[in-house]
Amino acid sequence: MQSDAGIRAQFPEYFLTYYTYLRIIRNPPRIEHVFQKARDMYRYLEAEGKDVLDLGAGFGLEALLVAIYGARRVVATEIDRDMVEVGRYLAERMDPPMTNFESKYGDGIAMQFPSASFDGVMANCVISHVRDLEGFLGEAHRLLRPGGIFFLSDENNSLFLPARPRRRRGWRQMEREPRGPYFAARLAFIGEHFPQITGNELLETARLTRGLVGKDILSAVQEYQASRRVAARPAFLYRDPVDGQYPERELNPYWLMRKFRDAGLKPELLPAFFSRSIENNPRQWVKDVLRFFCSLVPPLSVYVWPIMRLRGRKPVLTPSAGVS
Q1: Does some domain include residue 294?
Q2: 122 and 10, same domain (yes or no)
Q3: What is the rounded distance in angstroms from the CA atom of residue 129 to the CA atom of residue 246?
Q4: Is 119 helix (H, G, I), strand (E, B) or coil?
Q5: Is there a single domain that holds both residue 186 and residue 152?
Q6: In terms of domains, do 40 and 107 share one?
């Protein structure tokens, strides 16, 4: 186990911050939790000897473990260059170095991989940030080979009620006046395009355009100048005004399953993941009980655990079924 200084010398500062926050750095039980979780993902992806794409892989740890456990090829995509470099560094440090793992910079959905390039596509803690969900799932369907699996895991499960107050507090902080990140960014955006609007009028236009993005903000401000009102009512009030990013919006797993079907993926709700034999009793007993009942009745998972897990399988078409 390296010192903090040793980790900083090799990785970005936020690598240390992130994994310290998750209580993983120098914590063997938590490291074992990551191993078990990745093994579970590998099993549900049916990834042995298969080609797998990880969308929004972060530092690439789960993708790297899927490669180690036996996937033929794993491509981890990420839009943060530092994270991509960490993934490459970790793969090179394996003994022997991982030749079946590739850490790539870019948006996996927009990187124009050929159709039917992968047997498995996984998205961990990504789907709640996606702006175009239908396009995202449609592209996952295109990238999968017939019979391939799309695996989704996300902690923004709207049916787990205890997490709602904390999540909503986070959203409100993003729009806190006048320095909440989204509110401040919208103020700056409006001020840049409408320098004649200042003071209380600028604050009012920023309030009335909550949830709008880019050109829609500009149109709404023009409408406000003409009529002192804004008709647009966004479905979700908390979005980055520049790029439309969601701050981990809540998603209903059953609604997501309908979206899977619309995209041509046969959905399945998976049991929640609970690590084995890493906690001190009685906490481990509670996890063991939850694992038992969630394995028997997977739908129970979304009501007792914040993290939902789904997979969708691309059908294998028979000659009589036609061509998709």
Answers
A1: yes
A2: yes
A3: 5
A4: strand
A5: no
A6: yes
| pLDDT bucket at 43, cuts 50 / 70 / 90 | very high
Other beta carbons within 10 Å of 172: 12
- Alpha carbon distance 111, 105 (integer Å): 9
Among candidates 132, 126, 163, which has minimal Cα distance to 248? 126
- Residue 128's Cβ-count burial label (10 Å; 0-12, 13-18, 19+) is buried
C-alpha distances out from residue 258 to 126, 248, 312, Å? 18, 20, 11
Residue 323 has pLDDT above 50, yes or no: no
Q: Note the pLDDT tens digit of each residue in 128-142.
A: 888 789 999 999 999
The CATH number of the domain holding residue 34 is: 3.40.50.150
Picking from 138, 114, 35, 67, the residue whose alpha carbon sits closest to that of residue 75 is 67
For the chain, percent of residues with pLDDT exceeding 90: 75
What is the DSSP code (8-state) at residue 180?
S
Other Cβ atoms closer than 10 A to 202: 19
Instruction: Verify cis geometry, omega within 30 degrees of 0, for the bond prior to 315.
Output: no
Q: Which domain holds residue 212?
A: 162-227
Instruction: Examine the domain organization and report whether 148 and 197 are in the same domain.
Output: no
Query: How many domains, the chain?
Result: 2
